[in-house]
Amino acid sequence: MIRIEICTSNYKSVCNAQDGGADCAELCSALEVGGITPSYGVLAEVADVMRIPVRVLIRPRSGNYIYDDREVEMMCRDIEKVAMLGYEGVVIGALNDEGDIDVKAVESMMRAGKGMKFTFHRAVDASRDIFESFRQLAELGFDKVLTSGGCHDAPRGASVIAELQKRYGDKVKIMPGGGINISNVESLLRATGVSDCHASLTENVTCFHKSLYPDGVDATGASMVWKESDLNKIKMFVQLCRKL
């Protein structure tokens, strides 16, 4: 059976993931920049209501995945807080200056979250050699790796994901993510042979006070619209995947 993970960027999205029948969720903030670590307030509120396994993205900023010692320490502290709140695990990643897995940084984060489960995020797609990176991640003890096959999105990286599944699928769960939706998930799953799938399935929130912001922006030009993982989309996605 396909295990469905919803990438959620706020409290309501986690609730929708649960109510929509998802098996698990990733929690982050600022999905528009690839996700960063959510605030402690969000983490605490979600921890109070989560009924499915949730892993928290640990990423201190947008941009590249090459972190200095202070940033690694920040991430370790965040992991410790997440562990205290009872989350299943965290989603982490780090590269070195050569574009390879930063093993030292990754091992520090895994020590900080000892006893938790670990997903390596799409930093793997930015690495110098995706196949060598997967070999290392399996040895390090990750149970899931999120990947688009080194491409802009998972559908375009399907052939690489299929090869990763063939080589490493018995060592680590390979979870396609990036650009997956209701229209392409069936063909992607058939083409890759994976058993896990990751999607955000968002819609713009419609109740953003249009009377105050008829154009969806305020006087500064900042957007007053945000996205949430949509309950109906999640239900349809789950139904499609359950047939495979």
Summary?
The protein starts with a strand and ends with a helix.
> Stretches where pLDDT falls below 50 for ≥5 residues?
none
- Distance separating the two termini: 7 Å
Identify the CATH architecture: Alpha-Beta Barrel
Number of domains: 1
**Helical stretch tally:** 8
Q: Biggest sheet: strands side by side, in what order?
A: 7-6-5-4-3-2-1-8
For this structure, what is the CATH homologous superfamily? Copper homeostasis (CutC) domain
Return the CATH topology. TIM Barrel
* Structural category: alpha/beta
Helical coverage, percent range: 25-40%
Instruction: Give the radius of gyration.
Output: 18 Å
List the helices and strands and how they pair.
Blueprint: E1 3-8, H1 11-19, E2 24-27, H2 40-49, E3 54-57, H3 69-84, E4 89-92, H4 103-112, E5 117-120, H5 130-140, E6 144-147, H6 158-168, E7 173-176, H7 185-192, E8 196-199, E9 202-204, E10 227-229, H8 231-242
Parallel strand pairs: 1-2, 1-8, 2-3, 3-4, 4-5, 5-6, 6-7
Antiparallel strand pairs: 9-10
Helix pairs in contact: 3-4
Q: How would you portray this structure in words?
A:
- The chain has 244 residues and is α/β, with parallel strands linked by helices.
- It has one domain: Copper homeostasis (CutC) domain (TIM Barrel, Alpha-Beta Barrel).
- 36% of the residues lie in helices and 16% in strands.
- It has an eight-stranded parallel sheet with strand order 7-6-5-4-3-2-1-8, covered by helices on one side.
- Helix 3 (69-84) runs parallel beside helix 4.
- It starts with a strand and ends with a helix.
